[in-house]
Design goal:
CATH architecture of the largest domain: Sandwich
Order of helices and strands: EEHHEEEEHEEEEEEEE
Number of helices: 3
CATH class of the largest domain: Mainly Beta
């Protein structure tokens, strides 16, 4: 359904060549626009006797039986996807929440924010998953780079049951200035994430 380009109830998006019109346009503008839904990738079309419109990140539906102001509804994409691709047994009561680790959250900090050119610095690392649960057994590599660009590398055996690991490094005759610390966490060679911290060498 394509209306004239300058039709007052529509907006044409030149990036995709499609329009958003009427209540769909009002809903689009009121709930985040392109940033939330992406660009329209179709005009208004009819599917199963219902007006719908597809966007890059969503689908709008028109439900005329609902109260005014509530007739534009986002399609339940999750339910549709589950029905097409997932095992219905997962919906049975008592089915445990899978503990799949999908992402690593890496936090690192030094024991001393400022230290002398000679001494021992300890770097602490905390590794968590996407639900902020501690990850045991993540491998960690630290790379310290001092103000002269010289590097020291250390590999930690792995995080404990609390997701924690630490390493103490003896430093000698370090130049005055900032020492950066690059932390790379690796879980079973499948997930890799990096973080940075630093400390300052001073008199």
């Amino acid at each position: 359904m394509l209306l004239p380009e300058n039709f007052p109830a529509c907006r044409t998006f030149v990036e995709s060549g499609n329009q958003v019109c009427y209540a769909f346009l009002a809903f689009f503008d009121a709930h985040g626009g392109v940033e939330q839904f992406g660009l329209p990738i179709t005009n208004i079309i009819i599917i199963n006797e219902r007006l719908v419109q597809y966007f890059e990140k969503s689908r709008f539906e028109w439900h005329p039986g609902l109260p005014s102001g509530q007739r534009v509804v986002l399609t339940n994409i999750g339910q549709l996807y589950f029905g097409l691709y997932e095992d219905p047994q997962l919906l049975l009561p008592g089915n445990p929440i899978p503990n799949t680790i999908m992402d690593l959250k890496v936090n690192a900090f030094p024991q001393h924010a400022v230290m002398a050119p000679n001494g021992t610095q300890t770097i602490y690392v905390l590794i968590q998953d996407q639900r902020l649960r501690p990850i045991k057994g993540a491998q960690i590599t630290l790379t310290l780079r001092n103000a002269n660009g010289e590097e020291i590398r250390r590999t930690l055996v792995g995080t404990d049951i609390n997701g924690l690991a630490s390493v103490s490094i003896s430093l000698q005759d370090q130049p005055i200035g900032l020492t950066s610390v690059l932390v790379e966490a690796n879980l079973n060679s499948e997930l890799v994430e990096k973080a940075r911290t630093s400390f300052r060498i001073w008199w």
